[in-house]
# Entry
Amino acid sequence: MKQTVISNSTVQVPPTFEGEDRDYFIALMEHVVQKNPGEPEFHQAVAEVLVSVVPYVNQHTKYKAAKILERLIEPDRTVIFRVSWEDDQRCVQVNRGYRVQFSNAIGPYKGGLRFHPSVSLGTFKFLGFEQIFKNSLTTLPIGAGKGGSDFDPKGKSDHEIMRFCQSFMTELARHIGKDVDVPAGDIGVGAREVSYLFGQYKRLNNRFTGVLTGKGIEFGGSLIRTEATGYGCVYFVQNMLQHSNQSIDGKTVVISGSGNVAQYAAEKAMQLGANVVTLSDSSGFIYEPAGFTQEKLEFVKALKLKGGRIKAYVDQFPSAQYHDGQRPWSIPCDVALPCATQNELDESEAQLLVKNGCIAVGEGANMPVTPEGIHVFLAAKIAYGPGKAANAGGVAISALEMAQNSMRLHWTRDEVETRLHSIMMSIHQQCVAFGSTPGTPYVNYVDGANIAGFRKVADAMMAFGIL
Ligand code: NDP
# Structure
């Protein structure tokens, strides 16, 4: 009987794969699972890329002969370190820090830092691997990395956050640099944390360089960086809809999350005439049937800034309903934007979205849809924009922040947003170029993003010889 599941993992061999594609996929995945035990999210991220890239590599055998895929799935290096710090009760706390430097084939390592109690090495390997293709798609010269800590910023005082960030950076500083590795924020790492981290780096090195992005505007940050991931995601969805002669204007949009990405995805969707009806956090979701307004969104931004729960929204605006412990995918919509976290939209939720008439999905978060959920969207042939394309706007503006820092210049808001708009359009064009089915209008954005992202990095690796 044919093997359908990779040993010791939940990864499935794609049912359409035969012969060489099947054998190569199995060999690579067996290797990944055996070498990286207990890291299911990393296995999932690799499998999601191999689904598209294995057939491409089998058709372009120079990459196979040079073992580009075998090299790409192994990070350049992984750093794990202890972070000791003192809490407000003067008790010593110990956390673990990570930085996975995945690939610097096309530029310095680049990718965010996540502070969340659930993270492990596998989380950062999954995120760092995804970052390779995303950063390549931006058209900008940035390699891929990711890192962070199992530190939980929730409930910590400002002083505790500062002490943690300073201790974390004291170790991380020796591994990063403006031409080496340029971290940024992610879940749990916002403007405040980036500022503490940057301050400590500057103090340790006595150098003012663009070693982190997402910095405050006063000390080298770029305008639009805060908004970039959410805005970019909506621009990408707008491009997907325009490609099938539709518009986002007047569409009903369901969004998960209420953090940085969700807030600005909601803002841009509303600016473009859409009706955004949900937001969520890890406790539940709010449904605003008539749609959010900018004023209501400002309330959410202020609420989340002070660490509040989304539930508090309904006390202020009784027009909304709160659904405790639930995700928003049961609400009928035209467009779904998962903007919270990984694996937050599963097969049955994907089926429900399609059944309720959803025509486009744009991933604001990284890997928010499970493999089974992706299969539902692809089988239904709706416009499904994977995170490595749809949420690349954030890292793209980070790369523009690096450019402004190097030039010691500061571009205007309009200038940066115009560039964001054109970068998202270029990412969309690359997806169309590599994901279109000849003779049909359908675009498989998963294949498009994976193959376009892979090609540039693979060609750079070929040029360097065997490294
Ligand atoms: P934030 O920390 O600002 O917000 C995260 C949001 O997701 C919060 O609403 C949080 O709820 C919710 N959330 C977190 N964990 C869970 C969970 N397990 N279940 C349900 N909800 C959860 O992060 P960002 O908005 O910056 O990031 C969101 C996603 O976007 C992540 O996948 C990130 O990697 C990705 N991303 C972010 C970029 C950026 O520029 N910020 C760039 C590209 C991708 P609660 O408040 O309850 O914790």
Summary: The longest strand covers residues 92-103.
